[in-house]
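Lecture notes, unit on protein representations.

Consider one protein chain, 130 amino acids long.
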Amino acid sequence: MLEHKSKALDQAAPLDGWQLGECLHRLRRLLEVRMGNPGRREFIQVLRLMEDFHQHQVEQAVTEALRLGAISFDAVKMLLLARLENRPARLDLTFYPYLPAATVGATDPRAYLGLIAHAGLVTASVGVSA
């Protein structure tokens, strides 16, 4: 029922007094900030994983997802299943276009030499004017 009426999450009587780990609270905040109400629905899906798995297993998967920056139900479920099957998780980040992409370029040694030469000119010009 909560998946259809996700705004009732904070007032749901069955969840009253349920102690969730900080990682789950953080996941919820991030999902809601990024996606609004659909993010809340996705968080409810994460909570529903506890119908089939222990809470500590779900919390471990959430912690790993947060560490990887893969903030979604799919990532949590994939990490949870991979851990249970003792295999590495293979997350395809193309399914998460809202995550920032990291690009690392090759370092050009000439750029470094240019910095050294420029620093030498600055030092020489400071020494002349002093």
